[in-house]
Amino acid sequence: MVKLLSEFAVGESGIIKSVKGEGRIRRRLFDMGVTPGAELTMRKKAPLGDPIEITLRGYELTLRKDEASCVEVELK
């Protein structure tokens, strides 16, 4: 099942399938290591859902909800 990273619940894990978005946001996500094939786990979510924290490639990364909505992830 594929869903957007912004829709993940705390504790869910998956593998990145694709990264959408406009040039600047997409480039920033790639620079931070958010690339297809990478495994990630949702660690924390702020009370209103923005920002979120994920574990990716051995480090914690905080993303805004609009950035996370550009990432499609297949659940493990």
Gross geometry: globular
Q: Work out the radius of gyration.
A: 11 Å
Order of helices and strands: EEHEEEHE
Q: What structural category characterises the helix and strand content? A: alpha+beta
> Helical amount among residues, as a percent range?
10-25%
Which short descriptors sum up this protein?
alpha+beta, 6-stranded antiparallel sheet, 2 helices, 42% strand
Q: Could you characterize the architecture of this molecule?
A:
The chain has a six-stranded antiparallel beta sheet. The mean pLDDT is 93. The relative contact order is 0.36. The protein is α+β, with helices and mostly antiparallel strands and 76 residues long. Helix content is 17%, strand content 42%. It has two helices and six strands; from the N terminus they run ββαβββαβ. The radius of gyration is 11 Å and the shape is globular.
